[in-house]
Specification:
Layout (H helix, E strand, L loop, with lengths): L7 H45 L3 H22 L5 E2 L7 E3 L5 H14 L7 E4 L4 E4 L2 E2 L10 E5 H4 L4 H13 L7 H17 L3 H13 L1 H51 L1 H26 L6 E3 L3 H14 L4 E2 L2 E2 L3 H6 L5 E2 L10 H11 L18 H13 L9 E3 L1 H14 L20 H4 L6 E3 H4 L2 H25 L7 E3 L2 E3 L4 H36 L3 H31 L9 H27 L9 H11 L6 E2 L2 E2 L1 H35 L6 E3 L1
Length: 689
């Protein structure tokens, strides 16, 4: 492998990280010295107290003083004894004897990358691969052997060359001595995190001391006040180190990509990176399907043929080309759903964007020395058995109430296709309505008759879909710019449409974008009139005008109220969010007061919803029972320093049910209208307007 170039930015980020590590070491040593001095001072004062008068009170005060100093010192050194051990229960270890071809490939990669062979190799269920190790304070000093984790969901969706490139990327993280800085930063982060947040056992120790004696409780309280000050200092250092680590981590990814490209070529890593999101989404689709089948006690023997089916099905729907039986995703497709013109460097992101990584690999343009297009599964002795075993381990964590039924792939495919049909709009619309709603347009425009022919296929052409996606992107940009203007999204600068701006520019930039958005929406609005009139003519010709107008009226009614109802859902979700956080009792009481105010509006919306017939078809009797119980009680949710779990269950059941009902009703009404329009289509491809 040729010498990998270390970029100037990489060197800069490394130097910055080293400087912040040095800052931490200096700060930490200073805190340790102060803590030791405090312990000595407390011991001396305790000795003086007892010397002046030997009494049970002075003895307890002396013990309290010493305990305060010792508690602070323990807080500062407890991380030394903390070890981060990776949970291996979901993993399956494999050996060279079991998988000789795989081990041979890994041996070839580590030799070329000039790094060490992994200590152990494990299989997981997921769509990923990674190198991991058990870390502690001592791993900054002593050498640590790394383990390799390979996801079967990944192997199932890549070729041999792509798989080789992915593994080379993982080992590339450890191929240069400069990269070891990242390991030090990681461990320093772990140390500070331990002192800031991982304090459960320490708090238990302090609490047991405090409750054992009233005098000790005073000094434990003082110790915690001092520790709060130490944590404030460490938080500032933690933020700086984390920011530098994130920047370094992004450079590490580019470096590891270059290592992988030298080993396997640029293209295999590019194609696997671009396919990863689709492969992962397909895997999660299968998992979500079986999550919904837990109540029926249904599981799979092997989920991976089902993952492959979903991936290929979705790729076909998205009109993606295939190469060697794998879908090819390109950058244009990846960005086709994102029309945002805002570019913000996410300083907290640990990885560069896929787009940035692909462009960097394209610049390298390194050829593949051996383009093996076989599926990566050929590297394993018996992939189907491994897939069965990993699937079994995945389902072993699920508790079933009835004897388990094993689903066949045929049954999964039939269920998936039926669910997809129910939850998506007809292909005729070409995703035009995926992010917008059908609209008849302005009444004055509808009454005007247009001349000429309308080609049905042009109604939802890619050009019109692009216009809709552009509007969606502009709306998202406006929302983000408002957050920047308000200061809730903290950035020093950002790019919009290739031009750099600062937050103060949002004051005039937002209205400017809003004006352009209204112009584009006006064009789409006129097109919606054409669409409406086209289908109205077909409905008139087939004698279904009243049914067509009725479906439009029903959907318009539901759609007009949806924003208000959804705002109510967002408000109650936000108001109850504090219950998922650890907060002081005073904050809990204040938050409960706010929640009660929001609850009044939420309950009124539920009452209104229960009286409207349009929601009946998706409201189950179980939901009605929960709603009625919730409406007939005034819950307090919190008593005697504890949350009341039964009341919270009712609250969150009602919140989730409310969201399900309004969203499902809106979607079903929209789909019913759109399906009816498709049913009006004749064999001819055009119709007079």
């Amino acid at each position: 492998m040729q010498q990998i170039h270390i970029s100037e930015n990489f060197k800069k980020m490394t130097a910055t990280s080293v400087s912040f590590i040095s800052l931490f070491i200096f700060t930490y040593i200073a805190l340790i010295l102060l803590a030791i001095c405090l312990v000595a001072l407390c011991g001396f004062l305790g000795f003086v107290l007892v010397s002046i008068k030997f009494h049970s009170i002075t003895v307890m005060l002396a013990i309290g003083l010493v305990s305060m100093g010792v508690l602070i010192l323990i807080f500062l050194v407890k991380f030394i004894f903390k070890k981060h051990v990776t949970d291996l229960t979901h993993l399956t270890e494999i050996s060279r004897e079991q998988e000789p071809a795989l081990f041979s490939l890994i041996e070839e990669i580590v030799k070329e990358v000039e790094t060490e062979f992994p200590k152990k190799i494990y299989l997981s269920a997921d769509v990923n691969a990674g190198v991991f190790y058990d870390s502690s304070f001592w791993s900054m000093i002593l050498p640590v052997k790394k383990n390799l984790q390979i996801g079967i969901g990944l192997v199932n969706t890549v070729s041999v060359s792509e798989f080789k490139a992915i593994l080379a990327h993982e080992f590339g993280h450890f191929s240069q001595r400069t990269m070891k800085v990242g390991s030090y930063v990681y461990n320093v982060n772990q140390v500070i995190y331990n002192m800031l947040y991982d304090n459960e056992s320490y708090n238990s120790l302090a609490q047991s001391m405090a409750v054992s004696n009233g005098y000790l409780a005073i000094f434990v309280g003082l110790a915690f006040r001092i520790i709060t000050g130490i944590q404030w200092i460490l938080k500032k250092v933690y933020e700086k180190i984390n920011l530098s680590y994130m920047s370094l981590s992004r450079e590490m990814e580019f470096h590891a990509d270059e290592v992988a490209a030298n080993v396997a070529g640029s293209r295999p890593l590019i194609t696997s990176l671009l396919r990863m999101e689709l492969a992962d989404h397909s895997f999660n689709q299968v998992l979500n399907y079986y999550s919904g089948k837990v109540g029926e006690s249904v599981k799979a023997q092997n989920i991976y043929p089902q993952q492959a089916f979903v991936m290929n099905f979705l790729a076909t729907k998205r009109k993606l080309p295939f190469e060697n039986n794998l879908p090819l995703v390109d950058l244009d497709h990846l960005s086709s759903y994102n029309k945002s013109k805002i570019v913000i460097t996410d300083q907290w992101a640990s990885h560069p964007s896929t787009e940035d990584r692909v462009r960097q690999l394209e610049k390298l343009n390194l050829e593949s020395p051996d383009d093996d297009v076989q599926p990566a599964s050929v590297l394993f002795s018996d992939m189907s058995v491994l897939q069965d075993n990993v699937t079994a381990k995945l389902f072993s964590a699920v508790q079933y109430s009835e004897p388990v039924l094993v689903n066949t792939s045929e049954q999964f495919i039939a269920d998936f296709l039926e669910k997809y049909r129910k939850n998506s709009f007809d292909d005729f619309y070409n995703t035009y309505y995926d992010s917008k709603n059908p609209s008849p347009g302005e009444p004055e425009n509808i009454s005007q008759r247009s001349e000429g022919q309308i080609v049905l296929q042009d109604l939802f052409s890619s050009d019109w879909v692009d216009k809709v996606d552009t509007c969606t992107g502009m709306e998202n940009d406006i929302h983000l710019l408002r957050q920047i203007a308000e200061g809730s999204y903290d950035v020093k600068s950002f790019d919009y449409d290739g031009i750099k701006y600062v937050p103060e520019d949002c004051a005039w930039l937002i209205p400017n974008i809003e004006n352009k958005l209204q112009e584009k929406k006006a064009v789409i609005g006129l097109h919606d009139v054409v669409v409406y009139k086209c289908f109205l003519n077909m409905a008139e010709n087939s004698g279904k005008e009243s049914e067509f107008k009725s479906l439009y009226a029903t959907f318009s009614c539901i759609d007009n109220d949806f924003d208000k109802r959804f705002s109510t859902y967002l408000a109650i979700t936000k108001a109850s969010g504090f219950m998922f956080q650890t907060t002081p009792f005073e904050v809990i009481r204040e938050s409960l007061t706010t929640l009660k105010e929001v609850e009044n509006g939420f309950k009124e919306e539920i009452k209104s919803m229960l009286t409207e017939d349009i929601f009946n078809s998706v409201t189950t009797e179980e939901m009605k029972t929960s709603f009625n119980e919730y409406l007939s009680n005034q819950y307090t949710y919190f008593h005697d320093q504890n949350y009341k779990s039964a009341e919270l269950d009712i609250l969150f059941t009602c919140i989730n049910s409310y969201h399900f009902i309004i969203s499902t009703t809106h979607f079903n009404s929209k789909k019913q209208l759109l399906d009816f329009q498709v049913s009006l289509l004749s064999a001819d491809l055009s119709v007079s307007s």
